[in-house]
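Re: your question about 4Fe-4S ferredoxin

S., sorry for the slow reply, the queue was backed up all week. Below is exactly what I fed in.
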Amino acid sequence: MGQWVKLICGASYQDMPTVRRLVMLYALAGVDCIDVAADGAVVAAARQGLRDAQWLSDYLGNRSYLIPDFPWLMVSLNDSEDPHFRKADFDAARCPAECDRPCEPICPTAAIQFQSPQVGGVTTDLCYGCGRCIAVCPVGNIEARPYLANPEAFSTGHLAQIDAVEIHTQTGHQAQFDQLWQRLQPWRAHLKLVSISCPDHDQVVPYLWDLYNTMAPLGVPLIWQTDGRPMSGDLGKGTTHATIRLAKKILEAGPPGYVQPAGGTNGYTVDKLIALGLVNQASPAALLDDVQPDQLPAPQPAGVTYHDSALARARTNISGIAYGSYGRSQVLPLLDAIDQELQPWLGKNFPDQLAQGQHTSLPYLKSTASAARPPWQRLEDTALGQGLTLARQIVAQLKPEGQTSNGQTLDDPNP
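Result:
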């Protein structure tokens, strides 16, 4: 079964405390991969979240679904201007004094705050570029400032902390993709997986073939992320149709690789995929470690299509799913309370002790923390328990209890 589940923290989201707690919760819920901004400090916060999850899993027992080798940590890059890589910006002094400021309540991360009618602005680290504020501003005062992620900003030490990379591209950006791919040469020895995220277009299939030929032979597994509705954040049933249509298109005619819907995925997506027969509910998952680079086909000559190749066996199933706004929004209201509950045990310094191999016993921690019972001993009435339940419900849509992956798994891309 294609049970690969990824959490997307946000390619432009740089709120490190929130990233840390999101990573911790979803790691404990059993996700296989977590996608974060290509920022060294954010990567460090994510790693800290994984260490938190590792420690908590010892005390959660069967309430922890942390996979044995930890979720893989992925960072996102863009080859050109892209809606995932932008920040809202405005001059509050230009806002009308009588404005109701609809931008403030509509921001899903509270990135926009006003101290008075014409004093305020955007907290950059909290903004992930959803664009909701731009759409509701009655005077058009808010603009999006795009940027390019910089792979050269990652030191060798940073590269050792990541497992995978995702490149956001769009049809027609072959030259920009080629340039970025060449700049990633120093990264390739560190990568266990490459993901390509692309929205739909009438020429998307030949474009993905061009990208495949550029990268092949790749040497690691490849994911095609079908970005149906980029940055939609919509939880309605209809939102998921675009990513499913694109996934079907790539399954039928796209290049070899794993297909993973994203961009509009929500609580209805898995049920719809199952109803359409796009989820393999019979055969076991294929371990990524068992995928050999020489099993992937060589670049295709010009004019040769997938149906002409030796691997012209139709794929019928998606290999996993990625959740962005939907996955974050379900637990975001609980994160501050979870942080307060865990602060005595997982404070600022404790994860650093874990990183240095210092193991502290629970009795000692209890003696230095508050006298209250720790939250993992009373999950039924804590924010931690609620957050774990919500995160697990999302992951379990594709990874039911009893079928949790024993490591990172994707359904065979070329059955």
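The longest strand covers residues 72-78. Residues 86-146 form a domain with the Alpha-Beta Plaits fold (CATH 3.30.70.20).

Happy to talk it through on Thursday.
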